[in-house]
Design goal:
This protein has 230 residues and is mainly beta. It has two helices and ten strands, in the order αββββββββββα. It has two domains: 2-181, Porin; 186-230, no CATH class. A hairpin with a 5-residue loop joins β6 and β7.
């Protein structure tokens, strides 16, 4: 973890929510299984990559891994989608794509909500047929520095047999966020004035408030060039 901080602290990145920015989010956490699945609470880890279409709306794709054990091996009254005496444990992989909405994207604390479609792979398999899955959740992002942020969230991963049972897997996660690129907030260039001394003709006042540069570059924006030309 310390190595990750050192590596990314030197990269030009922003933790604030920005339009047209890309994000990377490695995370760890804990997964709580519904009792009917007869699986123990277990740790999880994974990663997300995302893109923000605007400050408020974004999209993410993610994958996470869970290794767990059977809770009660004496149980025999199980359906095909549950684990029992014939199995010691299970490995799970969730992969999903989520829509994200950010509240207060210009604040250091940025709450958000997510909803997405999932795929769930169980080993050993819990069904001979495929299962539909989706998730909903909420969390908050905190911008620690210009380069690094933190994120904590809780999500309910719902794995369902169509028209039958639905199994809830609630994950609580925390991770580091890195955001690259995006539209920079416009910061006005300091106003410059040409003034005259007493008794001399009045000087010309030139206002540079609307002159801006491309993000992280010395190149003027096209509209800024037009203003300078005038």
């Amino acid at each position: 973890m310390a190595g990750v901080f050192v590596l990314f602290s030197s990269v030009h990145a922003r933790a604030e929510i920005r339009a047209e920015s890309f994000g990377v989010n490695p995370f760890v956490g804990c997964n709580f299984f519904e009792n009917d699945q007869n699986l123990k609470t277990s740790s999880l880890f994974g990663g997300r990559v995302g893109y923000n279409f605007s400050k408020h709306f974004g999209i993410e794709s993610a994958v996470e891994f869970i290794e767990t054990r059977v809770d009660d091996k004496t149980r025999t009254d199980l359906t095909q989608a549950q684990f029992g005496s014939s199995t010691d444990g299970a490995n799970l992989i969730f992969y999903h794509i989520d829509a994200v909405y950010h509240f207060m994207p210009d604040s250091k604390f940025t709450p958000f909500v997510v909803v997405g479609l999932d795929g769930a792979h169980y080993s050993p398999r819990i069904l001979d047929k495929g299962m539909a899955a989706f998730n909903v959740g909420a969390g908050v992002k905190y911008a620690m520095t210009d380069n690094i942020g933190l994120m904590v969230d809780v999500r309910d991963y719902m794995v369902t047999e169509v028209m039958q049972d639905t199994y809830h897997n609630v994950g609580a996660m925390a991770g580091i966020t890195f955001a690259f690129g995006g539209t920079e907030k416009l910061v006005p260039v300091a106003q410059e004035k040409i003034v005259s001394s007493p008794g001399e003709p009045r000087g010309l006042v030139i206002d540079f408030d609307d002159i801006h540069f491309d993000f992280d570059r010395a190149a003027l924006k096209p509209e800024a060039k037009k203003i300078l030309s005038k």
